[in-house]
Amino acid sequence: MAFRDDYAQGRPAGEAVLEAAPTTAPGPRAAPRTEAAPVQPPATLPAAAPLVTEPPPVKRKRPLRRLILLALLAGGGTYGAYAGREWWTTGRFFVSTDDAYVQADISTLAAKVSGYLEAVPVVNGQAVKAGDVIARIEDGDYRLALKAAEDKLATQRSTIARIARQAEAARAQVLQGQAQIDAARADQVRAAADYQRQQQLAQSEFAAKSRLEQARADRDRSDATVKGAEANLIALRANVAVLEAQANEAESLAAELRTAVDRARRDLSFTVLRAPFDGVIGNKATEAGAYVAPGSRIAALVPLQSARVDANFKETQLGRVRVGQPVHIRVDAWPDRDILGTVESLSPASGSVFSLLPPDNATGNFTKIVQRLPVRVRVPEAIAREGLLRPGLSVVVRVDTRGLDESQPPAPIEPHPTVSEAKPTVTSALHITGR
């Protein structure tokens, strides 16, 4: 490169080298400088090609990028127009929430009597019919209790029969007492007539005085006999009343024993736990050989045919929601399937009111929180019987409020006829229901 630069500037190459060589500073003991040999000029080099400066690159036009950008803008505008039209014509009439879940009338099957489980012939996920056996409890003690109650009842029935025979005998004695009274009264009449006759004869002095005294004694004796017979009749009738009272008492005791027999038979029937309705077994909690007490949980029975949806809407969303409006249900497990339901009812109070510790806003600071009100959505029976809707699944519901006349107030809630006419009763069952 040095030769090329020297050649370009018109100087000999040797001079350039000498000029470029640095001079060494003389030291204290510098060696004597010798003259350098003459430098032969190099061969003539060809002239260097002139440097060509490239022009700056020209930016190419990119029509493809512009087309893509225009297409995206056009597509976005079209989609925005379509979405706006859908919201104006349809979307603004829908009220939706994702705070919704599938629910059913889940029943917790529990033992009614205590004992060791003999068999539990069901497993989780098994479909059962009403009346199918869920569990069996050893029934030996309950059979003995039933036999003892039946024997006591048989003994009491024998007692009732004995008292009935005694009452018949007492009634016969009453009849005998009445006959004795009749005989005594006949003797009384005869003795009274004899005494009157003897008295007349004694006044005429045609009869002895002793005979008159004998007639008087017979009359008094007959009077006493009549009174004794009447008293005996009263005692016999009282004995009949006592026997009748004993018979009533025995019948009452027999009724108690019949109740004891029914209770023992009922306890024996409780040793076999049966399904109260059709459903699917879940949450099985025990196996054969375990000891259960009254109320011990055996398993849960889920009636899938009673599946429904409970949606918790905000209070600000309920202004247009009415009973009977159609509801579109989308289950997260099957997002591509649209299930059409119906608004069945609205809860009488918000969820916080029914909580264990309801809020009390009358004291302290207040922060307003939007409340949620449960809305029950009825699912078509055909869909529920498919068994796809399982309690606990998350769903998204959209209530279609189109066709609502906002000028009309909501219809008043009327009491159900079966509820208003029914009398309060206390019932007991083998199972505990719930959600």
UniProtKB/TrEMBL annotation:
Pfam families xrefs: BSH_RND
Multidrug resistance protein MdtA-like barrel-sandwich hybrid domain ranges (all copies): 108-301
Regions of compositional bias (Polar residues) in chain numbering: 425-435
Biased composition (Low complexity): 19-38
Superkingdom, natural source: Bacteria
Transmembrane segments: 67-84
Single biological process term from Gene Ontology: transmembrane transport
Entry keyword set: Coiled coil, Membrane, Transmembrane, Transmembrane helix
Xref: Gene3D superfamilies: 2.40.30.170, 2.40.50.100, Helix hairpin bin
InterPro entries reported in the protein's UniProt record: MdtA-like_BSH (IPR058625), MFP (IPR050739)
Coiled-coil regions, chain positions: 212-267
Sequence segments annotated as region (Disordered): 1-57, 404-435
Protein name, UniProt field: HlyD family secretion protein
Record organism: Methylobacterium nonmethylotrophicum
